[in-house]
């Protein structure tokens, strides 16, 4: 049985005793979707979004501020671990751009 507290698909696939299959991935994403967790990390720079075709409570100015504060304003080593979110991906891209001076792109498919 998979650990439902995981937020990163890569961790699921590389965990001990994990059988990697399409069903494992689909079940993992489905269980997160059923808990209204439509965002799932797939490594450091990828985000899987399952569109619920409904407004999301977590898409608001307060959530944006939280992810901005943690994502690129908080430089401490003990940052709180937030759930995957499109705001987290944007903050990571912005922080990387500011740190390296390299242009960044976010591709939606």
UniProtKB/TrEMBL annotation:
<protein>
    <recommendedName>
        <fullName>Myosin motor domain-containing protein</fullName>
    </recommendedName>
</protein>
<feature type="domain" description="Myosin motor">
    <location>
        <begin position="19"/>
        <end position="108"/>
    </location>
</feature>
<keyword id="KW-0505">Motor protein</keyword>
<dbReference type="InterPro" id="IPR036961">
    <property type="entry name" value="Kinesin_motor_dom_sf"/>
</dbReference>
<keyword id="KW-0009">Actin-binding</keyword>
<dbReference type="GO" id="GO:0000146">
    <property type="term" value="F:microfilament motor activity"/>
</dbReference>
<keyword id="KW-0518">Myosin</keyword>
<dbReference type="GO" id="GO:0005737">
    <property type="term" value="C:cytoplasm"/>
</dbReference>
<dbReference type="GO" id="GO:0051015">
    <property type="term" value="F:actin filament binding"/>
</dbReference>
<keyword id="KW-0067">ATP-binding</keyword>
<dbReference type="Pfam" id="PF00063">
    <property type="entry name" value="Myosin_head"/>
</dbReference>
<keyword id="KW-0547">Nucleotide-binding</keyword>
<dbReference type="GO" id="GO:0007015">
    <property type="term" value="P:actin filament organization"/>
</dbReference>
<dbReference type="GO" id="GO:0005524">
    <property type="term" value="F:ATP binding"/>
</dbReference>
<dbReference type="GO" id="GO:0016459">
    <property type="term" value="C:myosin complex"/>
</dbReference>
<dbReference type="InterPro" id="IPR027417">
    <property type="entry name" value="P-loop_NTPase"/>
</dbReference>
<dbReference type="InterPro" id="IPR001609">
    <property type="entry name" value="Myosin_head_motor_dom-like"/>
</dbReference>
<dbReference type="GO" id="GO:0016020">
    <property type="term" value="C:membrane"/>
</dbReference>
